[in-house]
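Tokens as discussed.
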């Protein structure tokens, strides 16, 4: 349980430190910018992952698979049709649930911290 939270927090803090050092602005505005970037990044990645779980990108995935199948030496296709590809992807998604809560919570927390630091900078 705790292991799911360590990775997003560590990635967020590393990205925040990276942004803070690159900007070189070590005040409340710098902290606000440093925490806003990883927060938006994590929330954006999780929104994209949740969208992909609904099958939005299945057409593109099937196109890549079909393109790759064109270059196979044995000429065998992995999926016969788009429908079989979608069904295999849906069954794979059901067997492997997405754990999005830790990353989403950490991302939103970083955004709230950035807003708090911006408020400190303005007051």
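Sequence:
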């Amino acid at each position: 349980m705790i292991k799911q939270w360590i990775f997003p927090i560590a990635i967020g803090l590393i990205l925040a430190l990276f942004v803070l050092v690159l900007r070189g602005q070590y005040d409340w505005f710098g902290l606000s910018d440093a925490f806003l970037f990883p927060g938006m990044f994590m929330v954006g990645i999780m929104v994209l992952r949740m969208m992909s779980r609904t099958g939005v990108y299945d057409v593109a995935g099937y196109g890549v698979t079909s393109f790759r199948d064109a270059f196979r030496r044995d000429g065998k296709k992995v999926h016969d049709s788009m429908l079989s590809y979608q069904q295999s992807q849906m069954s794979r998604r059901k067997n492997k649930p997405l754990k999005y809560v830790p990353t989403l919570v950490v991302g939103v927390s970083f955004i709230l911290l950035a807003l708090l630091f911006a408020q400190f900078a303005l007051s």
